[in-house]
Amino acid sequence: MFEIGIVDYGMGNLRSVYSALEAIGATPVICQEAQDLSQVDKIILPGVGAIGDCIQNLKNRGFVEVLNHQVLEQGKPIL
Of the candidates 38, 50, 39, 48, which has an alpha carbon nearest to the alpha carbon of residue 14? Predict the structure, then answer.
């Protein structure tokens, strides 16, 4: 089964997503550091509806550059 990374950028419903993935037999991994994304097969960026705050938190935690590399350059699936 795939390891699915859940990006922890200080917002979003991490535990709900984590539990849902476990319920279907997936292996969820909460990614608290940008470099954690290279260790998973797929990425989930949980939403909250406050996109401005979301983007700022992603930038502050160093996720933007790594997400661009993992998704745009390496083709890693993201939801």
Answer: 48
End-to-end CA gap in the chain: 17
- Where exactly are the structural domains of the chain? 3-73
Nearest residue to 7 (alpha-carbon basis) of 24, 38, 23: 38
The answer to whether 42 and 78 are in contact (CB under 8 A) is: yes
The one-letter amino acid code at 37 reads L
Burial of 4 from C-beta contacts in 10 A (0-12 / 13-18 / 19+): buried
pTM for this predicted structure: 0.77
Reported as a single tens digit per residue, the pLDDT across 51-65 is 788 889 889 999 999
Superfamily of domain 3-73: Class I glutamine amidotransferase (GATase) domain (3.40.50.880)
